[in-house]
# Entry
Amino acid sequence: MPLLDRVMTLVKANINDLIDKAEDPEKLLKQLLLDMQNQFMQVKTQVAIAIAGQHLLEKKHQENMNQQNEWLRKAELAIQKNEDGLARVAVERAVTYENASKNFAQQIEEQADQVRILRDALHRLEQKMTETRTRTELLIAQHRRAKLGLRTGLSDSQEFRRELALDRMQGKVIEAEALQQGTLEGAKPDKFAMLEKSDQVDRLLADLRARATRALT
# Structure
């Protein structure tokens, strides 16, 4: 994901090298913090979008489960009325909703992975941003004191450069492609799929008939 790539680039930046090459270290550090804050807000927004997507998938999953149960209820009623044709139609509809429900369940797992990746990136970036802000405030104060010292002859530029150097930033944001939020894709059923569905319908009908028989005894 480009957003995570940009975040990772910020976190892995060699601050020591940047400061050594900068004509104005204070300005550079302020810009670095601004960039990190901008990326933080973007990641935070993506987390909210991903969570909303997960909730939508969970709602669709539940809706299909409810429809599956409703068509199974209708199939049971048809069997009780000796309407085998209607019972089969109802079971076929129930199987369709069951398969859709399974597909949504898979998508929910993938979306949960995406939420986890983004939340982890947000947490790592927040930690790094807090650390960098604290160090930047210290460096700015040192920079201003050193500039005053240079004007009064109390320090030299090489000593100031060594004092300004930040420790190498450690850790990195997890690099991963956020899994796309999927939707059910319609595909032409082949003969094997049709046979499998027919077998599934037959088994459900047999089970419903057995349950109806037990209820009458």
